Every structure is written in C-alpha cells, then in structure tokens.
Predict the 3D structure of the following.
Amino acid sequence: MDPFRQVEGVVTPLNRSDVDTDQIIPKQFLKRVERTGFGEFLFWDWRGEEGFPLDRPEYAGSPILVAGRNFGCGSSREHAPWALEDFGFRAVIASSFADIFRTNCTKIGMLPVQLPEADVQELIQAAEAEPGARAEVDLQAQVVRMPGGREVPFEIDPVIRERLLNGWDDIALTLAHEDEIAAYERERERQGPVTTPFA
Amino acid sequence: MGRTLFQKVWDDHVVRPAGPDGPAILFVDLHLVHEVTSPQAFDGLRLAGRAVRRPDRTLATVDHNVPTIGRDQGIADPLSKAQIEALERNAEEFGIPLFSIRSNRQGIVHIIGPELGVTQPGMTIVCGDSHTSTHGAFGALAFGIGTSEVEHVLATQTLTQAMPKTMRITVDGELGVGVGAKDIILGTIGQIGVAGAQGHVIEYAGPAIRGLSMEGRMTVCNMSIEGGGRAGMIAPDDTTFAWLEGRPGAPRDYAAAVERWRELPSDGDARFDTEVAVDAASLAPQVTWGTTPGMVAPITGRVPTPDDYDDPADRDGVRRALDYMGLRGGEAIEDIAVDTVFIGSCTNGRLPDLRAAAEVVRGRRVAEGLRAMVVPGSMQVKAEAEAEGLDAVFRDAGFEWRDAGCSMCLAMNDDILQPGERCASTSNRNFEGRQGKGGRTHLVSPPMAAAAAITGHLVDVRAFDPDAVEAEVG
Ligand code: SF4
C-alpha cells in the first residue's frame, strides 16, 4: 500500500446523499477477477446524465471527491474504492460514510474524510460554483484546506492514521503477532464447526 | 455492569486487545467465501507466498454469478464462467471446501451456512458480503468485509476491528395477521433511516422477535446493513437450539453446546449505547416506493411527495427517487402496477418463505403478461420445496421455478430487469439499477410478492386472501 500524507487538487462535487456502491460500480463489472481497470466503469449508470461532474473537463484529473451523507452504503464490494482509486481519486470527503466502505478505503490507502455537514455543503457549493476550485487534504495535520484557505480539522482513528501515513501492510502487521494467534488457537479457540468434511 | 450478547462474543474472540500500537485482533471462527469478492484476495496470497491459515474454518460456494437455469449446458457468459472457475481453482489450490455449481449443497452463502449447521451461537463469522449479518440470527457476531479483509482473514484467520457501538432494537407488541419478519425490518429501517445504525452492532429483542421462527429472524438480521448496522444479532434460545439440532455441522455433544450457548444472552443490567423501540402491532405489510430501503410505506399508504420533507437533502433524494421510479408522488401504493415478481434471495429464499408465497398462489394464475419467478436460496431448499410439491404450485400458477443463486437480487446473471420494468421483489435492495439498469424495485414480503403476481399490482395481502395469510409462517 502506498503511504497517504496529503493530496492537493481540483475538487469534484457530487451533491447526492446515500450514494450506494451499486452506483459507484454496477454489478456487471464485478465479473472481472483482476484488481485494476475499474476506473472507466465508475458511476457507469450516471455517466452521460446532463452536467454529471465526472463528465466535465473542468474536473478532469481531480484527486478529491466530495459527496453527501452516508456515502458508500450498501454492498461491501471493494471494487467501489478500487474504481474510485483507478479513476484518480485519493480522498473522499462526506458528512458520513457507510462502515464497510470506510474500512475498505483505508485498506487500499484511500482516505475517507468525515466533515460536518455545513463544511461539506460549503465545499460542494464552492466546487460547483467555480469548477476547478482546489482544496488540500492533509492527513499529517488532520485538516482540510478549503478553496478559500480556511482550515477544517477532521478526526480519524490514530491507529489507522499511522498505518496510512506509513503505507503499512495490514497482513504483515497482524502476522507480527503470529505467536499470539497460535496461542489463541491452542488455548481458547472454541470447538467446531469444522468445514473440511463437507468438501 | 453486565455484558451484552455482542460484548460476550467479542470478548471470547480477542486475540490481542486494542492498544496504542494497533487495533484489536479478533479470531474468526468461520469464513465464508464466494466467487465475486475473493479472486483478488487469492491473487494477493499467491503474490505474497502466503497460505490459507485455516481451511477447516473456511467454506466456499458460488452464488452471485451462477445461472439459475440450464446448468447442464454449462455457463454461457465467458466472464462468469472464468470467475466461477477461478474459485474452483483457488479452492483446490488452497484446500478449501467448495460447493460448486454441480453440488446439491450449492446455494446463497447466507442460506447454506445455517442450513449446514456451521453457523452457530457465539461464533464470529465473516464473508466478503454485506449480508453476512444474516448469521447474527443465531447469536453469532457476523459481518461483511471487503476483499482486502478477505485476504487478511485467509492469511491470518483474524481480523483487526475497532470496537463498534451497540444498539438494541426492541420490537414490542404482537404482529398482525399477514405481517411478518420482512415487514418488521422494513418498518424498522423506515423508522431509523438507512444510516440509523451506522457504527453500531444491533441486537434485536422483544416479544415480536422472540416469536419469530429462525427463518424470520434471519430475514430481520439480514437487512441490518440496510439500516447502516455493522451487524445484527438475536439472542439464542430454544427456537435456535431446536432448529440447529441434527444438522450436519452441529456439535456432536449437543447438550454441552446448548449449555454453553445459554450463557450468551445479554445480562439483565447490560447497557446499550442506543435504544430504539418499534411497535409491531402498528405495522401493516410494508412496500418500498423509492431507491433506498428506507423509502418505505405501509401498503395502505401513499407515495410521498418531496414537499412532505423538511430537509433539503431529503427533498432532493425523494425527487430523484420518484423520477427514477416513474412515480409522481401522492399515488396510492396499491395502484402501482408491476410487470415482474421475484421471490428469492438471502432475505427471503428459505423454505417458509416459499411456503408462505405458495399459500397465496395455490390454485390461482399469474396476471396476464406478468413475469414471475421463484429462485430458491439453496439447492437444499429447492429439494425440500419440491418434496412438498411447492414447485408444482408455482409452476401451475405460471411462475418459473429455478435453480439456487442470487439471481435477480443483483442481476449479475441473465435474470435481469429491462429499463422501465417494475418488480415486486422479496430481496433487500431497491437501489437504482440493482435489478438491471433502469429497472424499478419494490421490496416486499413473500406473500405480498405472491399476491402482486396474481393481481398484477401491489396489493394488501390481508384483504387479498385472508385464509392464506392465516396459514403463513414467520
Ligand atoms: S441474494 Fe442478493 S443480497 Fe443476498 S448475497 Fe446474493 S446478491 Fe447479496
């Protein structure tokens, strides 16, 4: 995983709430067995709608997406953050996120930033009123620098922050405690059910 | 202070507590795997030269992407075929038991776990699928994870987790005739909203929950994620123990297991971060009219208009939803005509669901021009239903009777809505395009879907067929 420290660039506004992962990447693209190449299918059913921000050249190459509340609800498909990442986004800002989507983002080095509703609305309006408006998400300082320069602080789990800043591999971190897993299996693991007889 | 059911299961599985240097590491008792969210995880293992730590705690099946008809002819779509074969290869290479497409145990992952008896009280269960919450009906802590986490569990048999908050949803009062588990959960989501339980593990409690069958409890827990919940749980009781006894995966010393499981229910003085009360007696059969499961109304109600909402974001959402659904707002729900009916999915694809629908259908015909299908949740459910003659009831009425899979719940295979088609569906998501681009979904219970198939429009099953609803289970 690549480390995440800060990202600066054009903000893409998506003024919709409850954006579900079926919209982010529809099911017909989940048949791929690869990890990459999902970007071109991002928001597939919404692309081509009049004025859809991802179609507008002013937002091309934008690394920051800002959207309404409960972003990423529904299916647990990690293809959703993969598609956002593949399209070029490094950070998503919203007033709330669905739990699984939020976790999936941090597992691949993408930053979900939760800001108060009023700040999210301000950012959406700035990006809509002036396409090409820029902002900065700074994980080190835990602030978002708005287009006008105002700094808005955000919260994040310190352990996750550390992992993102360093780009650490989650599995390797856990395997550093392999002895503790083995001890649990020896001493405390609950009995059954064993699945292998069903093969 | 006492502990909640959730807290007890959590405590039992902490390999390493949370500290300044890392999150809690939880042991995973059962890892369920399906074809769509796993290939990249297996690739990751291969790339890092890692093995699957506990194949004996892992179980795979194919469900999302399988055809539900003409299986003997193989899989026509090359991409679907490649994905299913990838899981077959991965299961073989890593030594994981798999129920593939030719198995008589194949089925939707959340149906086969309980059916086999490998879903048990007090366990931690994960799967790369958000409806893993279904297994919480047995008093397990079960939740959906992404593909990176799937890889993590394959490699370590553990998961790192931040401590969630707890919410108790107490469903009091008695359910009316013709009102069931699906209506409880749709009504609850309507009440708390689609993000209402965000960050929480839900425990469903109260007499109306205790009175449900295991299948009904699974229906309720299944849709916890639609209310934003991390997981949904129900304390195990005699209903649970009776249901599990004798299943292939059930513990050999069953009495000893039951004794342990009796310790699991939340202590009387346990506290929850959030308490919600739902009144079962006031619930009518529920129908979604919009594009989130929270956009729901009683069958006796009307479709709202944007002006019914104060919050500008709500108004926007409702406007968009009505536009997508081809509704003006204000129409009576019962006046909405449907051209498709889907009975199945991990929410309502179990035997009692099919029985309840068959009761309504028996001796009747599907409305002219309407397409109706029943897709059992597993090949076992299919066989049991056929042994009771339910297939004949559905076929005689004009329903298609299919093989097991997710099918039109997410329409990854050929079971798909065309743009503008409108479906009464027993599944769990009515998102835009969920059942096919431009397709319109109304979520309902199995008897409600059956009644809609007969009349060709959404209809109150209580008025439609009082005798059939009287016989309905859970
Ligand atoms: S039936 Fe639907 S909700 Fe359930 S696992 Fe399959 S696709 Fe997911």
About this structure: The two ends of chain B are 34 Å apart (CA to CA). Chain B has 18 helices and 19 strands.
